[in-house]
Design brief:
The chain is α/β, with parallel strands linked by helices. The protein has a single domain (about 5-230, about 250-300), classed as NAD(P)-binding Rossmann-like Domain (Rossmann fold, 3-Layer(aba) Sandwich). The protein is built from ten helices and nine strands.
Length: about 300
């Protein structure tokens, strides 16, 4: 039976993956890297899934060193532990931010020229570069997954903010932005990870983008929230220049709307998942982008 070790299992994705794998009859263990002696733990798993990392810092308090230590330093140390262990597969969860964080002028494939903007994106990119530069023994493989924005039960990201705005009857002020983005429902992400574990003897080491099969516009998301909550959303088309000015003010006044969050909510980025689906012989992911979104919004209500 496959035995999996998860780091970062207490986070949003970690909790969902832990439940998913156990329900799929995997033996799953967790490892906390907060334990100062974690590098001396004996690893008996076949697979290590690394979910540890520092995410976006919308409040602007984290330093570059904070991101580098969490996203690069810990990854290097854990990978060294993997090389010394009997585990045959290392799955590292990176981020599409290692390639692009703002408006993508073309569909983002694995060949996209990296254009990270933030400390977060740069640290994720550097962790990828380190892993890809390492020589692997013949009996070991390493997979990097670059998920787009992940959502699902337990999510505390931008979709929650959008849900609260619509659910409280507050007019949505960003209607002047016409955008479309790729997302990944956490159930689809867990499915892909499980398929990689199950295909570890045949899949080729390297980096793979992960996204739902379809993209979504912000208007689709707003309409979905309104439909599920039975509250018609009022969409305001305030001029873009005014919104951007308010977001800049939010950077200094620590308001809910700031430049980073505005970019995340209004930029366009379509990400291809063709490479990972081809590697795993998948025609379609289990849930459509709309079905994943429905599940997430319903979880906010419950």
């Amino acid at each position: 039976m496959n035995k999996v070790l998860i780091t970062g299992a207490s986070g949003f994705v970690g909790k969902n993956l832990l439940s998913f794998l156990r329900n799929t009859h995997y033996l799953v263990e967790t490892l906390s890297l907060r334990n100062p002696d974690w590098e001396n733990n004996s690893i008996s798993a076949n697979v290590i899934v690394n979910l540890v990392g520092k995410a976006h810092d919308h409040k602007g308090k984290a330093t570059e060193a904070d991101f580098m230590e969490s996203n690069l330093g810990l990854t290097r140390r854990l990978f060294d532990v993997f090389l010394k262990s009997d585990a045959s597969l290392f799955i590292h969860i990176s981020s599409i931010a290692a390639l692009e964080e703002e408006n993508a002028l073309a569909v983002v494939t694995e060949d996209y020229i990296p254009n990270p903007k933030s400390f977060y994106g740069h640290s994720k990119k550097m962790a990828e570069e380190y892993l890809l530069s390492q020589a692997l023994p013949q009996n070991k493989k390493m997979i990097i997954l670059r998920p787009t924005m992940i959502h699902g039960p337990g999510d505390k990201g931008n979709l929650v903010l959008l849900f609260k705005i619509i659910n409280k009857g507050i007019p949505y002020p960003l209607g002047a932005f016409d955008n479309e983005r790729s997302f990944i429902g956490v159930d689809n992400l867990c499915y892909v990870i499980e398929r990689i574990i199950n295909s570890r003897h045949t899949i080729i080491s390297g980096a793979y983008n992960v996204a739902d099969d379809e993209s979504l516009s912000t208007l689709q998301i707003i309409n979905t929230i309104g439909k599920i909550t039975n509250k018609k959303a009022l969409v305001l088309k305030i001029p873009v220049v005014i919104i951007k000015f308010l977001a800049k003010a939010g950077d200094y006044l620590k308001l809910p709307l700031n430049s980073k969050r505005l970019t995340k909510m209004t930029s366009t980025m379509i990400v291809s998942n063709s490479k990972i689906k081809e590697a795993l012989s998948i025609e379609k992911l289990p849930l459509s982008a709309q079905e994943s979104l429905d599940r997430t919004i319903k979880s906010f209500i419950s």
